[in-house]
């Protein structure tokens, strides 16, 4: 009943080639570079097309103890692969200054072992301990950025980010871009994302594939890999069929070398309910397991701010209005997110975080409709194109090329039309057609043409309507 989804992938590729989307009009320069490349490719001898490996290939199935990775691993088994389950542990509770636990990784590990025992033929999963690498490459550098005022965004999905249990996704935005929520829009640690990708898609593959050069890696991400429109012998990253759960945004800076031997078995599933239904049909106990919504290394004992108090010293400063009037005090810039509501008593109207100034150690609050909250353009200093054939030539011209951007302040699955221009080195300038709320340095921006993910980078700076009026 469950076979490989190659026919679905082929149909999806045909449907998502340049020119398919009618969601907005593109100028010729927005797609001629792909069309011309296709023409050149057609004239040459075509290389073998990238695709999933044959049955019997060893595949490391990255598991978290959740329903997504459980179903993904079972699908691989049904498709005839030699499934080798692995569980990645990224946090050592002894690293907590309190000296006590709080991480639920042991429970997740038990769930993984049970799934393997009952539904994967009794194979014993492997526990890969990357807690030292996580501390060095993710948490310790992130502390420096938090201390410098980079957006911390205190609510984190445990098994999608902090513990990195192979199920990372961006939760739906709490509000449309033209409205402002009463709490932080995002639920993940923005400044940790590039380093988490370093752990999962660089260090982990090196460790696993280094000892098994013929093996592949599979995860429970909602994303798709199809032959690239630019070079069919390598994969291109596409949004998952389940747009609300799509995780290609998170994967947008992953190196091609990592994606070359990666499988996303859930990429063609249209809904999370379909995944849960399949798990229940197979009798998996994870079919009814709730998605974790806490930080694995914080646990339920305390909130994220209290957790960071153990690592970051208090650095009080003023909360001011646009005119410089002091209306409150803060204990550290890292506690505040641009675009979130600032709960300050005694003011005649609700105010929101419009800016954080590390130089003066101040938080600037503004009314809901302030131009300071509406971002018009973005600069990145480390943009990564997913294909070596990128960027398109038009990116280096003054007019740039038309694409669509995904930023965490957008509703789930939504993209924002933009014009992209390549700057010096890996820097990219992105001008938004419509201003967006809640965009700030440290966040990730990904670029798309229809469902095809061109790449991603970390926002280095932004301009707002307020900047343009000065």
UniProtKB/TrEMBL annotation:
Q: Which residues form the tRNA-specific 2-thiouridylase MnmA-like C-terminal domain?
A: 378-459
Which SUPFAM superfamilies does UniProt cross-reference here?
Adenine nucleotide alpha hydrolases-like
Alphabetical list of InterPro entries matching this protein: MnmA-like (IPR004506), MnmA-like_C (IPR046885), MnmA-like_central (IPR046884), MnmA-like_central_sf (IPR023382), Rossmann-like_a/b/a_fold (IPR014729)
Provide ranges: composition bias, Low complexity. 1-17
> What would you give as a GO molecular function for this chain, any one?
tRNA binding
Record domain tRNA-specific 2-thiouridylase MnmA-like central: where: 306-366
Q: Which GO terms describe its cellular component?
A: mitochondrion
Q: EC number(s) for this protein?
A: 2.8.1.14
Pfam families per UniProt: tRNA_Me_trans, tRNA_Me_trans_C, tRNA_Me_trans_M
Q: Which GO terms describe its biological process?
A: tRNA wobble position uridine thiolation
List every stretch annotated Disordered.
1-25
What are the protein's UniProt keywords?
Answer: ATP-binding, Disulfide bond, Nucleotide-binding, RNA-binding, Transferase, tRNA processing, tRNA-binding
**Domain of life where this protein originates:** Eukaryota
> Reaction catalysed by this chain?
5-taurinomethyluridine(34) in tRNA + S-sulfanyl-L-cysteinyl-[protein] + AH2 + ATP = 5-taurinomethyl-2-thiouridine(34) in tRNA + L-cysteinyl-[protein] + A + AMP + diphosphate + H(+)
Family to which the UniProt record says this protein belongs: Belongs to the MnmA/TRMU family.
User: What task does this protein carry out?
Assistant: Catalyzes the 2-thiolation of uridine at the wobble position (U34) of mitochondrial tRNA(Lys), tRNA(Glu) and tRNA(Gln). Required for the formation of 5-taurinomethyl-2-thiouridine (tm5s2U) of mitochondrial tRNA(Lys), tRNA(Glu), and tRNA(Gln) at the wobble position. ATP is required to activate the C2 atom of the wobble base.
Q: What is this protein called?
A: tRNA-5-taurinomethyluridine 2-sulfurtransferase
- Source organism: Rhodotorula mucilaginosa
């Amino acid at each position: 009943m469950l076979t490989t989804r190659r026919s679905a992938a082929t149909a999806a590729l045909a449907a998502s080639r340049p020119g398919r989307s009618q969601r907005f009009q593109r100028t010729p320069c927005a797609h001629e570079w792909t069309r011309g490349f296709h023409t050149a490719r057609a004239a040459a001898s075509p290389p073998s097309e990238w695709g999933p490996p044959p049955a019997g290939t060893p595949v490391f199935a990255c598991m978290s103890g959740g329903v997504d990775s459980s179903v993904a691993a079972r699908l691989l088994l049904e498709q005839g692969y030699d499934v080798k389950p692995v569980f990645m542990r990224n946090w050592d509770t002894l690293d907590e200054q309190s000296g006590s636990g709080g991480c639920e990784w042991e429970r997740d590990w038990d769930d993984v072992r049970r799934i393997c025992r009952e539904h994967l033929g009794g194979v014993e999963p492997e526990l890969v301990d990357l807690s030292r690498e996580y501390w060095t490459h993710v948490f310790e550098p992130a502390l420096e950025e938090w201390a410098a005022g980079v957006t911390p965004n205190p609510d984190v999905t445990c098994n999608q980010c902090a513990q990195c249990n192979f199920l990372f996704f961006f939760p739906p935005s709490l509000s449309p871009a033209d409205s402002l929520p009463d709490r932080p829009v995002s639920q993940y640690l923005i400044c940790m994302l590039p380093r988490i990708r370093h752990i999962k898609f660089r260090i982990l593959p090196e460790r696993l594939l280094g000892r098994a050069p013929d093996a592949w890696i599979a995860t429970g991400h909602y994303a798709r890999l199809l032959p690239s429109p630019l070079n069919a012998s390598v994969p291109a990253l596409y949004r998952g069929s389940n747009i609300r759960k799509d995780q290609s945004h998170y994967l947008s800076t992953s190196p091609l070398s990592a994606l070359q031997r990666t499988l996303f078995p859930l990429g063609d599933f249209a809904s999370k309910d379909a995944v849960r239904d399949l798990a229940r049909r197979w009798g998996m106990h994870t079919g009814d397991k709730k998605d974790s919504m806490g930080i694995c290394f914080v646990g339920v004992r305390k909130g994220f701010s209290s957790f960071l108090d153990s690592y970051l010293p208090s650095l009080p400063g003023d909360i001011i209005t646009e005119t410089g009037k002091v209306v409150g005090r803060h204990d550290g810039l890292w506690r505040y997110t641009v675009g979130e509501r600032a709960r300050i008593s005694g003011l005649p109207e609700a105010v929101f975080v419009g800016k954080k100034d590390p130089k003066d150690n101040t938080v600037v609050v503004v009314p809901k409709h302030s131009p300071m909250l509406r971002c018009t353009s973005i600069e990145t200093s480390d943009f990564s194109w997913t294909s070596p054939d990128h960027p398109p030539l038009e990116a280096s011209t003054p007019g740039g090329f038309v694409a669509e951007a995904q930023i965490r302040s957008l509703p789930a699955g939504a993209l924002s039309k933009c014009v992209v221009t390549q700057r010096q080195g890996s820097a990219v300038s992105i001008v938004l057609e419509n201003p967006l709320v809640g965009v700030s340095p440290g966040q990730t921006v990904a670029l798309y043409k229809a469902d095809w993910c061109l790449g991603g980078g970390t926002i280095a700076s932004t301009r707002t309507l307020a900047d343009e009026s000065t």
